[in-house]
Amino acid sequence: MGERRWQISLWYVLAAVFFLVLLYSYGVHEAPQEISYSQFKALLNAGKVTDLVLTPEEVQGRLTDLEVGQILSAEQVAHFRRWGQREMRFRAVRVEDPKLVELLEAKGVPFAGRTASTWLMNILSWVLSAALFIGIWLFVLRRLAGSGGPGGLMAVGRSRAKVYVESETKVTFADVAGIDEAKEELREIVEFLRTPERFRRLGGKIPKGVLLVGAPGTGKTLLARAVAGEAKVPFFSISGSEFVELFVGVGAARVRDLFEQAKQKAPCIVFIDELDALGKSRAINPLGTHDEREQTLNQLLVEMDGFDPNVGVIIMAATNRPEILDPALLRAGRFDRHVVLDRPDVRGREAILRVHTRNVKLGPDVDLQVVAQRTPGFVGADLANVVNEAALLAARRNREYVTMQDFDDAVDRIIAGLERKSRVMSPREKRIVAYHEAGHAVVASLLPNVDPVRKISIIPRGIGALGYTQQLPTEDRYLMTRSELENRLAVLLGGRVAEEMVFGDVSTGAQDDLQKATDIALAMVSRYGMSEALGLRTFESERRSLFLESAAASRRDYSEAKAAAIDAEVERILKLAHQRVRELLQAHRRELETVAEWLLEKEVLEGDQLRSLLEQCAAQREPRTAAGS
Ligand code: ADP
Ligand code: MG
Ligand code: ZN
């Protein structure tokens, strides 16, 4: 493994430095015994020295024996004696002595010269300090790099694509809520990773690759980590997007390395996040080929084909755009098991809120079920955000615990971006929005079998939404009758019709409503068989494969004439609904105006307030209708 190799080489450097230091100090210790020049001269005259080396500064040599009488001090003799007979080396600093060489020749003592510089020492000290410096430098670098991520972060090679290894993710299925079906499907994988022998013995076929498909924030990454955590196996992860900017060939090498490591650590999980960045269909590439991505993808395919799933390596990948993946990735023996993570329904949302409020102090009035009802369409990440935001709000408000008010505000905040009360809307715009929303709300209140209005707001929010009318609940219906669909259409058109009636003009604010209304009308005709003109035949396959291999997906299974008939029928349904809403609102213009004026004043209207306003209007009308009849 990269990390170990790296650490060992660092230890080598440190050990070498240490060794050199030792050698150096040992060398110093072994330096010859220092004697005075006069002692040297006396020894020379006594014939007790040999092997002399002369430099301009000093004389070095060896004593032949220690029977030197009074020439050396007792201490010096003891010193020489400690070194043993053969190595009684000495040195003496030279004084001016031009006759020395003559004397040496006369005595017949062998001698040699040497240049002044002690080159060995010089080089040694250079190498030593350089090695020490490099060692410390590397150590510091290592520390800095290591502090950048979670425990097991490691960089394979020098590139930016990182393989993250967690020997234990500590995430379990208990941390994942609201996507029970996906969890159920992955339980088998967990079982396999826990006891691979059992599966092997029975010859069971284990999928090599599991593809998690779901909208951003639905918990794909979380779920993959939870599988590793449940199975207590190492988790190797890498993100597809990191490969894209690499040099050619590096990505492929990285993939090879990843699988190499994974095989050594089996059983384990290899997780490729954002597979779409890497595995985009090779066909859809406007700028010609992207060599690097393609090479990396090819390497991935090669690796996936080249190993036996029974070694215990499970490859998981996540994407939110399965339709753009290269078909080769989805073939049998590769990512042939697909697990879809749906947006959570109301019970799922409540469960997710419970997971995230485990460590949050909740006030007695907090009802997570109501929060869940208010957040249709939210994914796990949004709900985690709601809880966090609510806790922050409560802290800012100096509360002991988080109250329902904090949750309400947090939801409002996250629904359409931060409230921008400071944004100035022209009074005319504000009037239009107020009547538009009042139109939705009044229609919703007047029709039977419609989700009750929870809140209306004309506070401008982030991009797109100028106001909103929130109904409760707005999803989690498994069956809807035709009249319910028609009522829903009416509520959607209520905003537009109110604008027409009051201002004699229409704004762009109804675009989203009209889109949704069109979708509903189209579905009624083409899927639910709710149009007399076209009968029970459906015109669109509901169960379209998630992973279409080609553009054949958009092929129609009906004629041009039928298409025209469908269009006509959709138009008819919308026109009828429009007519109906117009009549309804004309009959209740007073309600519309009362609600709109209230909204203009207060900006926000709660469901209960709306109902009491409407009751007041009805009470005022009653005497009149009584008089009229
Ligand atoms: P994805 O990979 O699908 O974009 P993530 O797994 O990164 O989503 O989710 C982001 C965060 O949202 C998670 O760390 C978790 O806190 C929260 N979250 C998402 N889905 C769930 C879920 N089903 N249950 C609990 N928490 C969730
Ligand atoms: Mg993710
Ligand atoms: Zn609207």
What does this structure look like?
The chain has 629 residues and is of the alpha/beta class. The protein folds into 4 domains: 31-117, Signal recognition particle alu RNA binding heterodimer, srp9/1 (2-Layer Sandwich), CATH 3.30.720.210; 162-341, 3-Layer(aba) Sandwich (Rossmann fold); 346-416, Helicase, Ruva Protein, domain 3, CATH 1.10.8.60; 427-626, Peptidase M41 (Methane Monooxygenase Hydroxylase, Chain G, domain 1). The protein is built from 22 helices and 15 strands. Strands 6-7-9-10-11-8-12 form a 7-stranded mixed β-sheet. It has a 5-stranded mixed β-sheet with strand order 1-4-3-2-5, with helices on one face. The chain is elongated and about 145 Å long. The protein starts with a helix and ends with a helix. Mean pLDDT is 79; it is low at 1-5, 146-161, 418-424 and 541-553. Residues 176-179, 214, 216-222, 318, 352, 355, 380-381, 384 line the site of adenosine-5'-diphosphate (ADP).
CATH architectural grouping of the largest domain: Up-down Bundle
- According to CATH, the fold-level topology of the largest domain is Methane Monooxygenase Hydroxylase, Chain G, domain 1
Number of domains: 4
The molecules bound to the chains, other than polymers, are:
adenosine-5'-diphosphate, magnesium ion, zinc ion
Proportion of β residues? Answer: 5-15%
State the low-pLDDT regions, or none: 1-5, 146-161, 418-424, 541-553
Instruction: Tell me about the largest β-sheet.
Output: 7 strands, mixed
Strand elements, count: 15
Q: What's the tally of helices?
A: 22
Average pLDDT, rounded to a whole number, is 79
- End-to-end CA span: 92 Å
Order of neighbouring strands in the sheet with most strands? 6-7-9-10-11-8-12
Estimate the helix proportion, in percent. 40-55%
Structural class comes to alpha/beta
**Gyration radius from CA atoms, angstroms:** 42 Å
Task: State the name of the first-level CATH class of the largest domain.
Answer: Mainly Alpha
